[in-house]
Amino acid sequence: MLIAKRDYEPGDVIISEQPFIYILDDQIRGSFCDSCLQESGSLTRCSDCMFLYYCSSECREKDWEAHHKYEECKVFKKIMDDQVVEQFDRQMLAIRVYLTLRGRPELKDKKFDMPDGSTKSFNEIMTNEEHLKNSPGHFRSFLMVSELLLSVVSGFEFQEFFNVFCRVCMNSAILGMTLSMTRQLADCIYMQYSMLNHSCRKNSQPIYKGMNHEVRAISKIKAGEEITTSYIDVLQSREERRRLLRIIWFFDCECIRCQSNDDDIVMEIDSLDVMPLNDRNLEKMLVLLDKILGEYSPKASAICMTFLMENCPLNQKNRSRLLEKAKKVITVALGVDHPFYRILTSQPKDAKSYFEFCMKFMNLIHRAIYGFS
Ligand SMILES: [Zn+2]
Ligand SMILES: [Zn+2]
Ligand SMILES: [Zn+2]
User: Fold this and answer.
1) Containing domain of residue 327, as a range?
2) How many A from CA of 288 to the centre of ligand 3?
3) What pLDDT digit, counting tens, does each position of 196-233 carry?
4) What is the total count of domains within the chain?
5) Does 193 reside within a domain?
6) Domain check: are 260 and 161 in the same one?
7) If you count Cβ atoms within 10 Å of the first and of the last residue's Cβ in the chain, which end, N or C, has fewer?
């Protein structure tokens, strides 16, 4: 839980940090460098495990020193030889963290400065061990990875690995790379971000600049209030949101939206008859978006652009209004120092370039929210 130590205005940067540790997503290994995460047509493999790919010898050396030399190369070689890659997928980050902490034990207790003035080490972030122990899916996957580690790593300790496994399950963040959130670039642990609890009506927004991760206020936050983020897509019914939070993070959401009896986005959108969006229901739709996502949510601004792209029957005045709303949000949520800011706030010159502008706008917003490439 992160409590604001001071007042924040919308757009204020609360957190700015690099990942504590990360690993490239399995699905794109071979097309992206395992170290710098850049796409490249000329990658070379680690000559020992043949599993990881690098764009340069600098990247290879950097990765070797940071974690690959700590038995990871041996473990990945085993995965490669046994062809079990498919099965592991998301547990790779747990393997990397476990082996790195074994090789560099000082990292376990290394204190990181938190935005509220406190400090926290990896060993202090949430584990939820009891819940994960009783979750058949998680426990099965823990046993499967343990079996592999046991066969390769001398002095492998179940309890120690379980501890790391739980912290990774509960705190990893996904660095994405495309419009559809289905493709992800890497799994990461961000130490400061891991402090944030969920709310279906969050007051902060993570924004990526490359691998750097910023969390910005998207509404006024007073000193003493909790700073929150969303773990799931909040444009879902209360029932669905609470179900997902319960099965993945093991808690019953009691946020302001979940407590309100009139909060059911699915029903509200249905009753508004917003599809297709038109001049008559535009106002209601914008109010609804503010209510659900907050006044300065970049996601709301991406939704406004979707309406423009879908050619909703709106008059010119309302089309301009949607565009202006989207741009106003961007100014606050991304900030004028963001590399995308100038592109997103430029004016499309004519009708032809308008559609292209909307497409680009959507694309850049998603990249800012979910990650780069
Ligand atoms: Zn590289
Ligand atoms: Zn290797
Ligand atoms: Zn909730």
Assistant:
1) 232-370
2) 16
3) 999 999 999 988 887 888 999 999 999 999 999 998 88
4) 2
5) no
6) no
7) N
